[in-house]
Amino acid sequence: MKIGFVYSGQGAQYIGMGQDLAETFPAARKVFDLASNALNMDLTELCFKENDLLNETTYTQPAILTVSMAIDAVLAEAGIFPEAVGGLSLGEYTAFVKANVLDFYDAVSLVKQRGKFMTEAVPSGEGAMSAVLGLERETVEQVCLETSEYGIVAPANYNMPGQIAIAGKKEAVEAAGEKMLEKGAKRVVPLKVSGPFHTSLLKPAADQLEQVLKSVQINDPTIPVVSNTTAEWFKNKEDVRKLMVQQVQSPVYWEDAVKTMIQSGVDTFIEVGPGKTLSAFIKKIDRSVTTLNVEHQKSLDKTLKKLNEKKLPIH
User: Fold this and answer.
1) 215 is catalytic
2) Where does the Malonyl-CoA:ACP transacylase (MAT) domain start and stop, copy by copy (predicted)?
3) Which of 89, 194, 227, 250 is catalytic?
């Protein structure tokens, strides 16, 4: 058995995420304390108590990173370690922390700034994203080209077979969505996001991130990390630094990245972080692999039981 960890992306957040684990496991609580110290704000309040900030990209990103690493700390205590890692968009930063590419303290501050840059890149209401269900990627790409007269619109997330998110200028995304339905899409679902992420409209955010990264220590990965942008393994710290900037304004090739992990021998995926979105994607990509998730005590117990049944060699 070869285990791969995959880390949640933006949109998976909910009030109360990680709370029972933080209250039960000191290792998880320590991660929240570190993040609170790094950002000079109480991350337990942000994640556990009703508030309006959690769904603001600037705060969503450090919150999900913190919860994911807190869960990861609990898994490490239980002797569960990955042999390869990846993460959806924001989740790639959690993978970087796990692979010692980034220090957690630095990463929490970095993703908060990344979220702020992404929010500010396109004025509110000008951009949009929609999920297109039931079309081949070639058709989605062609329709985006055909409707570009309305403004920038392009594939943003290749999530799984039959599900691709498109993003761009609001009018262009709406026009593309209508044409996708004409081409046979089962559904086109507008997404509740604050901007047209992973498109060229985010270049201002990428440029700002590039400047910030100049003062951030980046290390070579100590375990393999798969890239959202190329669906290949990061080679070294220079590769990481370059692709961190590209990732903000480039499509996320999640389906391809998962296939890269499977081709390397990963047969057991553990989704670490809030929600089960990535598990659902992976099941659609390849039903032959085992998919598990850990987001709270109940799912932790279930995952540990499954791994025990599979005779996992505990480290």
Assistant:
1) no
2) 6-294
3) 89
Catalytic residue selected from 68, 130, 194, 198: 198
What tokens were used for 213?
A: 């990264």
153 within some domain: yes
Q: What angle do CA 130, 118, 281 make, to 5 degrees?
A: 40
CB-CB neighbours of 60 under 10 Å: 24
Question: 177-234 pLDDT, tens per residue?
Answer: 999 999 999 999 999 887 899 999 999 999 999 999 999 999 999 999 999 999 999 9
- Count of the separate structural domains present in the chain: 2
Enclosing domain of residue 268: 3-121+201-309
Upper half-sphere CA count for residue 100 (Cβ side, 13 Å): 5
Residue at token pair 């998110």: 165
pLDDT digits (tens, 9 = 90+) for 244-278: 999 999 999 999 999 999 999 999 999 999 999 99
Residues 262 and 78: their CA atoms lie apart, in Å, by: 24
Is 198 marked active-site?
yes
The answer to whether position 315 is within a domain reads no
